[in-house]
User: Fold Phospholipid/cholesterol/gamma-HCH transport system substrate-binding protein from Phreatobacter oligotrophus.
Amino acid sequence: METKANTTLIGLFTLGVMAIFALFLWWFLRVSDRQDREDFRIVFSGAVGGLRTGSPVYFNGIRKGEVRRIDIDPNDPRKVVAVVALQPGTPISTATRAGLNVALLSGIASVNLANGPEPAQPLQREAGVPPKIGPDVPGGSDIMSGAQQTMNTLNGLVERLDRLVAEGQGSVQRSLNNVERFTAALGDNSDGIRDFLTQVGDAAKQISALTQRLDRVTSQVESMMEGAQPGRITSILKNIDDLTGGLNAQSQNLGDLLRDARTAANSLTQTLGSVNEVATTFDVRALNRTLAGADRVIQSLDSERIGRAMANIDRFTQALGDNSANVDALLKNATEVSSKLNGMADRLDALLKNFSGDGNNGMFAEFTATARSIRTLAERLDTRTAQLSTSITGFTDRTIRDIQSLSADGRRTLSELERTLRSLERNPQRFIFGGSGVPEYNRR
Assistant:
């Protein structure tokens, strides 16, 4: 009869042998690794998140060793000292630079070594101290911290944008309402604006035609003045000046003469009136008796001498009576001529001063400058009117289209921001690591 084997003991024995073999193999490899590899120091000037003992060390992307030890620099707590073990033959020199590479998904860090382009010498070893590799280049931990800062900044920006939109919603709505009312007013008054612009254009054309006529008149006057003989014009002006001077000098005598003539006419008129009144007051019978007495007296006188005297008196009175209207008209005309001569002298003096102005201050110079100014004003008004009409038409069309586009873009932007924020709240890791997120299944 066979004895029954104890399987438990056999299994334990087998596991023990395998464990002893594994420990021996690990010890052998570790001892050989320590004997064959060379230690180097790397000083990092920042956080080394994700780096731990046993992390791989790469040289130009090829694994050449691992991290043996990590500790804080006793001289500067802001720095971290990492001791790495590299395979023999790794080309470490004074130009070698170390960097920290962090995997974005797993967060595990590794050391990456690379040589610079400049020629360098191999590192010299000191007794008991591993050689130091040069300053580290920016590592992957900086990327993670930078990403975290970026996320914080983005979060603050989104919050401020949300507050800004919430606070300025009323102002934006009021601005849109004001723009809508403005465009509606322009549309309602489009006929009036068109009529106004048409009237302004017609006025500008009329002013332009007027300036052209004034320019032609000025040119004709200038050509006439240029064609005239300067000496003759000077002589004419001198004669007119002498005439006005003589009239001015004799104005006192002429005034006295006219006043005397007016006084004589008034006296004659009063005398004739008195004679008429006396004639009306006499009685006819008394007059007959007086005439009879006078007749008797006359008969006693020389009839021929009396006849001649009466004839002379009769002719004088007849001539004076026949020309009384002419005498009144003569006196009136003399008065009017005196007034007109005085006014003409004043106007002629002013005209001569304006006509013979010094330099550019003459009448024709001012007239020419005025005509040119009016023409320039008309041209500018015509140009500005056309520009104003084009600008108003383009502004009304573009403003309506731009406001509609702005409103639509604003709504789309707000919708996109709201959808992005909701997606970020539901699945933050999708924003960090990408992808479509962890699929979810409904349990049945």
